[in-house]
Design goal:
7 strands; five-stranded parallel sheet; about 150 residues; Rossmann fold; two-stranded antiparallel sheet; alpha/beta
Length: about 150
C-alpha cells in the first residue's frame, strides 16, 4: 500500500491553457504573487496527460508532480474534463489539487467538473482587474497556504 506523504519540497504549478491571452494574464497574476519560479505550461489536453504521466516529450521530466493544476476545459485534442477524469483515475495523480479555470458558466460542465473531482471551479472573469485578482487569490491559496499530499 502506498502511504501519502506531505510534500513541502515542490512549489511547481501546472497551467493547462490553450488561449494565449488567458495564459499571459495567468502567468502575470502568478508572477505578482511570486509563484512563477516553478511553473510549467502545456497547451492542450493531450500534452497535459503526457506531462502528468511522463510520456512523449515529457518522458524525461525530472520534476515531481505539481502542487496544483490550473485547468481550462475547452482544450484541443483532449478536453479538460477528460484530463480531470484521467488525473483522478490514476493513483500517482489523484491527490493533486485541480482548479478548473474556464469561461464556461454552463451548469452541466460545472456539475461534471465537481462529479469528476475538481477541487474548485472558477469562471474566468471578463474584466482584466477581476481576472488578475481571481488568479492571484487562487495562486496564493493553492500555491502557498494549502498543504498537499503526494504518493511516493
Amino acid at each position: 500500500m502506498i502511504h501519502p506523504q506531505i510534500n513541502f519540497q515542490s512549489n511547481r504549478i501546472l497551467i493547462v491553457e490553450d488561449n494565449e491571452d488567458d495564459l499571459e494574464l495567468t502567468i502575470d497574476a502568478l508572477q505578482i504573487r511570486q509563484l512563477t519560479e516553478e511553473l510549467d505550461v502545456v497547451r492542450d489536453g493531450a500534452e497535459a496527460l503526457d506531462y502528468l504521466f511522463y510520456q512523449n516529450k515529457w518522458s524525461e521530466r525530472k520534476s515531481s508532480n505539481p502542487i496544483f493544476i490550473l485547468l481550462d476545459l475547452k482544450l484541443p485534442k483532449v478536453s479538460g474534463l477528460e484530463v480531470l477524469k484521467r488525473i483522478r483515475e490514476n493513483s500517482s495523480t489523484k491527490m493533486i489539487p485541480v482548479v478548473i479555470l474556464s469561461s464556461s458558466r454552463q451548469e452541466k460542465e460545472i456539475a461534471e467538473g465537481y462529479r469528476l473531482g475538481t477541487n474548485a471551479y472558477v469562471v474566468k472573469p471578463v474584466e482584466f482587474k477581476d481576472y488578475m485578482e481571481a488568479v492571484q487569490l487562487l495562486g496564493s491559496f493553492w500555491g502557498t497556504l494549502n498543504v498537499t499530499i503526494h504518493s511516493n
